Amino acid sequence: MITDKSVKELEGSRAALTVTIDGAAIEEEYAKRLQKYAKELTIPGFRKGKTPASVIERKFGDAIREEAVYEMIDKSLQEAVKELPEEERPLPFESPLLKEDDLEKPFRKDSPITYTVEYDVTPKVELPSAYTGLEVSTPVFEVTDKDIDARIEELRDRMAVVRKKDGEVKSGDIVTVSYAEVDKDGNVTGEKRDDFSFTVGTGYNFFKIDDDVIGMKAGDRKTVEKTYKEEDHVPGYEGKTILLAIELKEAKEKILPDVDDEFAEDVKEEYKSVADLRAGIKAEFEKTLEEVQKNIKSETLISKICSEVEITVPESMIRSQLDSRYRNMARQSGISTNQFDMFLKQQGIDKDAFLASYRDEELRTLKAQFVLDKIAKTEDFPVDEEEVTKRAEESLKNVPESERDSYLSIIRDDLRFEKVIPFLLEKNTFHEGKKYSYYDYMSGAFQADQEAEGAKEEGQAN
């Protein structure tokens, strides 16, 4: 069927595959279709299935020949792609685009057909001259006494006894209030809410009235003047001054347990003393930070290596990643993608602009995957065949025997890929950078520093 084929590399990680189909193969397909339509079509003057092929050909020959050609293009394309090396095959994220303008029409009897399709291919990756022996500075995380103290206070708060109080409200108390935006005569003019509860000092209330309720008692009423700045984060009230009527309906106080050996044992049975409790918290935090440190080292190193690599990631792959992210966001929100579409519209958010905001992040992720995959292939890490067999037993139970070899090859590639990060961590040197505590990481202070540093570097680059 195929008499010739060739692949031409294009810009942007794309390729053009040109295929020539033998004229005899097209004629064979054309003849089959003539016979098929002769049996199926009803032509005036002939019984169904008795129309001569010559009559069908005279009336519909050009259309049937075109249909046969496109059928043969489809079949030959599948055949040609199977014979291509992996790096020249189309990526699965979109169908190859047929360059119809290059087809010679109308299609003629016994004439070969040459067609071209364009498609995305796996990007070529040229690794930097060195991806080992590098020196990288990364943040250092440590567990401080303040971290442990903060955790103990969290545990005390969680195990506190709450009781009603008649005295003045102080920070940390739980209050129930009713409030309303009013005019100078006390008439309600805006936002109003009844029986709203919050913990004083947390700021978890719309009008930020924590300081205003301190000193009040159950049953007290007061009207306060509130002026809101941009940093107060009260949507719709920035720069405004309002009067707010507040009624304290109820106040409760937390009775925190003493930090003693009994408290430690209540936290966890194996803790017999406060010293055991502090040691346990420290060990728990250190285990968390060990994984954090490892991830940050690998991310920083990969970023450094990728900065030396030029890769054109195909647009179809980026779109696929963004679409997958969008579906995951909807799923995590517990709604369908159509409902997520509607939600964005209600918020006045354009879907394309929303997805575009994640483009750079997905691009970095894809680029890193290509670089790590190239390192895995370059290093050709040895694979434990016992591990291959173990994974195959777990995942290939329902795979036909004829397909097992290809799946086993994928498993081996996965095992090699898993060795890349440990290899890079071992073969490069890391220097201690700025120090952060456990709660610096958990509170977002570390992340804020990283974002500020990233923005600074981007500004310098521009």
Structure description:
The strands form three sheets. Strands 6, 7, 8, 9 and 10 form a five-stranded antiparallel beta sheet that branches. Strands 1-2-4-3 form a four-stranded antiparallel beta sheet. 47% of the residues lie in helices and 20% in strands. By secondary structure, the chain is of the alpha+beta class. The chain is built from 15 helices and eleven strands. It has helices spanning 23-40, 53-83, 145-158, 210-213, 261-267, 274-306, 315-332, 337-346, 351-356, 359-379, 385-395, 404-418, 420-427, 438-443, 445-461, and strands spanning 2-10, 14-21, 97-98, 113-120, 135-142, 161-164, 174-182, 188-199, 221-227, 241-255, 429-437. It has three domains: 2-120, Alpha-Beta Plaits; 161-255, Chitinase A, domain 3 (Roll), CATH 3.10.50; 279-461, Trigger factor, domain 2. Helix 11 crosses helix 12. The radius of gyration is 35 Å and the shape is elongated. A hairpin with a 3-residue loop joins strand 1 (2-10) and strand 2 (14-21).
Short structural description:
Helices cover 47% and strands 20% of the residues. A hairpin with a 3-residue loop joins strand 1 and strand 2. The protein is built from 15 helices and eleven strands.
Q: Topology, please?
A:
Elements: E1 2-10, E2 14-21, H1 23-40, H2 53-83, E3 97-98, E4 113-120, E5 135-142, H3 145-158, E6 161-164, E7 174-182, E8 188-199, H4 210-213, E9 221-227, E10 241-255, H5 261-267, H6 274-306, H7 315-332, H8 337-346, H9 351-356, H10 359-379, H11 385-395, H12 404-418, H13 420-427, E11 429-437, H14 438-443, H15 445-461
Parallel strand pairs: 5-11
Antiparallel strand pairs: 1-2, 2-4, 3-4, 6-10, 7-8, 7-10, 9-10
Helix pairs in contact: 1-2, 5-6, 6-10, 11-12
